[in-house]
């Protein structure tokens, strides 16, 4: 009997009716526009990976469309999905033990052969079925993957990324880099960006627009708008996230011979300095580990963000907001 993961969040985080869901995704994808300054005309020929959000579709579905619209499906046979662990503590990466993932738009077959090869490295564990079902960071990408590849007989390789350190990010990056180098594979990196507010335990605030010598502070409950330099909190959040987007964008402005490796180090330093609650920071770290490994053999990366949104325009300490960003990755 097949080990099947149901569409646990269908009907709550996204539509469960196939016709309604398919129409919704098609509409969001059709709304994506050309961005001349980023030379972005979807689909992007030769795109090999994306960074995209994983919140409920009412919040992040439109933003995710900008990443998914960039996908050039030509020749793709396998999709790796790297998502952060929200409900269990892991000090490694885990693969799925399921045979199929269910979506309202049709099932997705897991690539058991590739999963077996990853397990043979000794670096991967296997998710329990309960962990697999509880985790939304991978599931929220499945309808989009099924929609984009609706005419393709693809398989998927879900990977749950735990609380690994920078050295482990490089190790997993080294293991996965050959798969990213293979044009038959595509990678989805699942991440939201800043989770701001007392409910998230994070109230970092820049009193002045960046660049500035004035350091950021953590706001207290009693801080009023008058104490916020008359600068809206959502503008500070935008600057905070933009720092991360600038670090991750490749090629960078530096003339380094190893820009991806440099970005990996700068991203870790940025997270230590700001504490920004980017929930997919570990999958992003593994992506940077892969790109760092590939640039050793001369591959050069273009990582371009094409969309940024906030769930709300936060203006008070009592408010909250989650940020969503979408990017595509290609090689030259």
Automatic annotation (TrEMBL):
Highest taxon of the lineage: Eukaryota
HAMAP family tied to this protein: MEMO1
Annotated transmembrane regions: none
Coiled coil: none
Pfam short name (any one): Memo
InterPro entries: MEMO1_fam (IPR002737)
NCBIfam families reported for this sequence: AmmeMemoSam_B (TIGR04336)
Family, per entry: Belongs to the MEMO1 family.
Full protein name: Uncharacterized protein
């Amino acid at each position: 009997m097949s080990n099947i993961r149901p569409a646990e969040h269908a009907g709550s985080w996204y539509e469960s009716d196939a016709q309604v869901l398919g129409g919704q995704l098609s509409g969001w994808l059709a709304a994506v526009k050309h961005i001349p300054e980023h030379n972005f005309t979807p689909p992007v020929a030769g795109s090999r990976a994306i960074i995209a959000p994983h919140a409920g579709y009412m919040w992040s579905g439109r933003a995710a469309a900008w990443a998914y619209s960039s996908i050039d499906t030509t020749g793709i046979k396998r999709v790796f999905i790297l998502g952060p662990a929200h409900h269990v503590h892991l000090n490694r990466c885990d693969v799925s033990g399921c045979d199929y993932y269910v979506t309202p738009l049709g099932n997705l077959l897991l690539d058991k052969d590739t999963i077996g090869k990853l397990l043979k490295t000794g670096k991967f564990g296997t998710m329990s079925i309960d962990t697999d079902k509880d985790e939304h960071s991978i599931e929220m990408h499945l309808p989009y993957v099924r929609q984009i590849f609706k005419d393709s007989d693809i398989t998927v390789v879900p990977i749950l990324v735990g609380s690994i350190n920078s050295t482990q990010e490089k190790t997993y990056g080294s293991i996965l880099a050959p798969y990213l180098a293979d044009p038959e594979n595509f990678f989805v990196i699942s991440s939201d960006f800043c989770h701001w507010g007392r409910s998230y335990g994070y109230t970092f605030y820049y009193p002045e627009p960046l660049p500035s010598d004035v350091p950021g502070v953590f706001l207290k409950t009693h801080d009023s708008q008058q104490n916020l330099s008359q600068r809206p909190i959502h503008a500070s959040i935008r600057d905070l996230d933009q720092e991360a987007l600038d670090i991750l964008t490749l090629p960078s402005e530096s003339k380094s011979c190893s820009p991806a490796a440099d970005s990996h180090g700068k991203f870790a330093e940025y997270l230590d300095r700001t504490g920004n609650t980017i929930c997919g920071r570990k999958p992003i770290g593994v992506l940077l580990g892969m790109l760092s490994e590939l640039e050793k053999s001369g591959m050069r990366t273009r990582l371009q963000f094409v969309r940024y949104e906030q769930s709300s325009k936060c203006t008070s300490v009592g408010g909250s907001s989650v940020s969503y960003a979408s990017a595509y990755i290609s090689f030259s």
